[in-house]
Design goal:
Largest sheet: 6 strands, mixed
Helix content: 10-25%
Order of helices and strands: EEEHEHHEHEEEEEEEHEEHH
Strand content: 25-35%
Distance between the termini: 47 Å
Number of strands: 14
Structural class: alpha/beta
């Protein structure tokens, strides 16, 4: 059975640098009728666990460690026994939300996480956060970009631990090199494609400087 992609939207708050904002987050579930992985356990462990049902959760993968993408991860891990994966460069951000609970495993660039016919290749794409990653599956024709690339441009780089030139390099070198028909499934908002976003790179650069 080939893997499929399921989508859940959860709501909560994003807090950093002393500010707090209401946000809706995309939670992605990838797998089949037997086992799945969760990409970004945001806000609501109960809703995510309900969507998983009686399937085995093999991994909770964090695209980065901003609190709105990881706040439900420990509770979901506790309920399911699934390990939490994070890129080590985001540990300082992780500790702001979960000072007493470390991630279980570290993501590395080029690593492949397999589940139920899906092969998710980790692309380290710093900029929005130092340890931001995207997860690319050529078989599914999709890349999960967290907050690195959205429909309409790069993720925000105005707060701590983020850097605009770095996110532009990540998008140019790692994401826009993917096939243009690749579907971009984002951390917030609507999906897009690499081909739809690629022509706008120079405009983003001009706007960002």
């Amino acid at each position: 059975m080939t893997a499929r992609i399921e989508h859940l939207v959860t709501s909560g708050t994003f807090s950093l640098d002393g500010g707090t904002w209401d946000v809706d987050n995309n939670v992605w579930i990838v797998g089949d009728d037997h086992e799945v992985v969760v990409i970004d356990a945001a806000h609501d462990a109960d809703a995510i666990a309900e969507a998983i049902g009686d399937r085995r959760l093999t991994a909770i993968i964090c695209t980065h460690a901003h609190n709105d993408h990881i706040d439900a991860a420990p509770a979901l891990a506790e309920r399911t026994g699934a390990p939490i994966w994070l890129h080590p460069d985001d540990l300082p951000l992780w500790k702001q939300t979960h000072p007493d609970r470390q991630p279980d495993h570290w993501l590395a660039d080029g690593q492949v996480i397999e589940t139920a016919g899906a092969d998710l290749t980790v692309l380290h794409t710093p900029g929005h956060a130092p340890g931001a990653v995207c997860l690319y599956d050529p078989g599914l024709g999709t890349v999960f970009t967290g907050d690195t690339l959205f429909a309409g441009g790069p993720g925000a780089t105005g707060r701590s631990y983020s850097d605009f030139p770095t996110i532009i390099d990540s998008i140019r070198d790692r994401l826009l090199a993917l096939p243009p028909e690749t579907v971009v499934r984002t951390g917030h908002g609507d999906s897009t494609t690499i081909g739809a976003e690629a022509p706008n790179l120079q405009e983003w650069i001009d706007r960002g400087h």
